[in-house]
Write a structure and sequence with these properties.
The protein is built from 9 helices and 7 strands, in the order H-H-E-H-H-E-H-H-E-E-H-E-H-E-H-E. About 35% of the residues lie in helices and about 15% in strands. The chain is an alpha/beta fold. Helix 4 crosses helix 6. It has 2 domains: about 35 residues, no CATH class; about 190 residues, 3-Layer(aba) Sandwich (Rossmann fold), CATH 3.40.50.
């Protein structure tokens, strides 16, 4: 790093000091203590029943209930700073948090046993919401994963229905809100590929399921959800 850039960054840190999103201490966007509190998900399980499966795919008893092949979960949402990191990224505009969160996704994807040619696809926001937020956090995460692992990526999905946020909805209402909400806009890159569908958090799984349905209809061979945490 050049001395000019170092001096510039030093001045920026003086004017806008970094604050840990986990504990509020000055110095780093995520301090070492908070990083050590992140609980990594070590055991892959069926997203439906919780039975241990090799890579987090649906078990034999549950696989017919989902269009997702499986769900790769990186970290615990309720323990450590992950929940706060995600909230600060999405609602406080702290885009620099996308990198440490993406590192969790990268670690999880590295130990998975996915087959076929992989294409990474972010869960899209509706254009109106993306304009309000200024970015799509799932796209930031997906881009970082592609860069770190040298994988192909595509904005192959578009959200075409604008509804109230899924955070404000529950259960059946979530699922109903999402019917017909997405369409595939890049079928060529999807066809016969193993799709890794990236999102920050999966709560009921309704968003990932609806996206998986659209991707399967477009010819995807497999669709795996990859999320930082499960709410």
């Amino acid at each position: 790093m050049s001395s000019t850039k170092t001096a510039y960054n030093f001045v920026l840190d003086l004017i806008f000091p970094k604050i840990c999103s986990g504990c509020g201490k000055f110095g780093e966007i995520v301090c070492a203590d908070c990083q050590n509190q992140i609980k990594i998900i070590q055991t892959p399980t069926c997203p439906k029943c919780g039975k241990i499966t090799p890579s987090g795919q649906f078990c034999k008893s549950c696989k017919d209930e989902s269009l997702l092949t499986g769900l790769l979960i990186s970290a615990d949402y309720r323990r450590g700073p992950v929940k706060e990191m995600i909230h600060h990224l999405k609602y406080s505009g702290q885009r620099e948090l996308a990198l440490p969160l993406a590192k969790l996704l990268v670690s999880r994807l590295k130990i998975s046993k996915l087959r076929g040619q992989i294409v990474v696809v972010p869960v899209p926001l509706h254009i109106h919401r993306q304009r309000l937020r200024g970015f799509n956090q799932s796209e930031l995460l997906a881009r970082a994963v592609c860069t770190k692992l040298n994988l192909a990526g595509a904005n192959a999905l578009k959200r075409i229905k604008f509804k109230k946020t899924q955070v404000e909805s529950k259960g059946k209402e979530r699922r109903e809100n999402l019917i017909g909400a997405f369409k595939c806009v890049d079928g060529e890159i999807i066809k016969n590929k193993t799709i890794v569908l990236v999102d920050d958090v999966s709560t009921t799984g309704a968003t990932l399921e609806e996206c998986a349905k659209v991707l399967r209809l477009a010819g995807a061979r497999q669709v795996w959800g990859l999320v930082v945490a499960r709410g």
